[in-house]
Amino acid sequence: MDRIFSTSFAACLGAMVLSVLGGCASAPVKAARQESYSFWPLFPEAPRIQFLASYRFSADVRPPRSGFDELVFGKEQKVLPINMPYGVAMWNGRIYVCDIRNAAVLCLDLRGQQVRMLGTSGAVRFASPTDIAITPDGVKYVTDIRRGAILVFDADDRHVTSFGFSGARPTGIAVHGGELFVGDFESQQVLVVDRHTGRELRRIGERGDEDGRFVWPLGVDVDRTGNVYVADALRCRVQKFSSSGELLQSFGETGDALGSFVRPKLMAVDSDGIMYIVDAAFQNVQMFDEQARLLMFFGGAGDHPGAMLLPVGVSVHEGDLELFADRIHPAFRAERLILVTNQFGPNRVSVYAMGRLRDGRTPQDVVSAAARIPSSPGGAPDAGAVPRADMDELLRDAPSATGQGNEYTLPEDLPVHLLKPMPAPEPERP
């Protein structure tokens, strides 16, 4: 770790002259109240998702420099861009972003108002950090597909150890109890690893096109009971297994119908069993319940707040809602945070809230402040804005079902415009 892009020293100096200058900022950055809000599903449905904030540079995390700071330190600031984000997770007010181009994990410390880089010095260097999983006590496990390893950091972001796997190309990662569940592009299986020792315990699935098998096991997550979910980037299919490897559920196919996929990437599962699956072609996140029924989607291409442009990573975070309190619409009760990474555009890391309207409020209470969002779920932006070939660097050389290279492109004749927003299903009557 490593380099720190912050105003920490300025904050300390400001504290020394508190009586003269009236103090310096030590609380989280207060976001200005938004002029418009993005909600999904669209009006007249009751909103369940609200866009809150996005980050593109380290300067987006730091508070604005005071006149005193500029007088002492000058106007120049070192700005770190978020270049090519992939996996993402949040813990204790910090957003951790796997950045392939920066070859580092970026820690956006929202409370400390600074950005740090993990894995950039000495023997602890990332080649291509891919995904990250964090335990409740803050231990971080980061896959590196090019190094064929998992790097481990403690709650203070210090490197503890690394697990190497001969011939493996680890992708998505999840942690449950004492085990790690890791997608492997090379074997086209999910590796189950002891998170304390790095010892392989067992494998889930095999290479192939049938249910229970994988071609590109990219997205991996685990629910509260330990069931394992895997999104296959080529088969456009999501499969659910018991922790021992028994296939429990399989759904999804290539297409433009409700609940289908074209370029599924990483995925997440929340404490209610809701699945969040990123699709870089639809440029949105689709949400499914425990029975694999499509609930709704959010995001979409465009220039509205919360728009997506080749999204890749997603994670769900319980807590830290107070960091975004000034951005939440007064009529909306946020319950958890959703983080999404985009490989292009201004919203490299976006934060959304999942929740519901407060008691006594109706969709009419938010529609006047709602941003204009296209009613179609996503689709490509203006012609020529983004190449139709997938820009995902990790998938360019990924093996096919036969172990050969496979160019990952979007079929030219596949329209991407038919998904419609769906409200959450009504509760079953007794």
Fold and architecture overview:
The protein has 430 residues and is mainly β. The chain has a single domain (4-34, 53-312, 378-395), classed as TolB, C-terminal domain (Neuraminidase), CATH 2.120.10. It is built from four helices and 30 strands. β12 and β13 form a beta hairpin. The longest helix has 9 residues, at 8-16. The N and C termini lie far apart (55 Å). The relative contact order is 0.14. Residues 1-33, 380-390 and 401-430 have low confidence and may be disordered.
Please give the count of helices. 4
CATH superfamily: TolB, C-terminal domain
DSSP helix fraction:
under 10%
Instruction: Tell me the name of the CATH class.
Output: Mainly Beta
CATH fold call:
Neuraminidase
Number of strands: 30
Report Rg: 21 Å
Whole-number count of domains: 1
- Give the end-to-end Cα distance, rounded to a whole number of Å: 55 Å
Overall CATH architecture: 6 Propeller
Mean pLDDT: 83
Low-confidence runs: 1-33, 380-390, 401-430
* Strand order of the biggest β-sheet: 1-7-6-5-4
- Proportion in β-strands: 35-45%
* SS content category: mainly beta
The rough form would be described as globular
What kind of assembly state do the chains in view correspond to? single chain
Main beta-sheet strand count, sense and barrel state: 5 strands, antiparallel
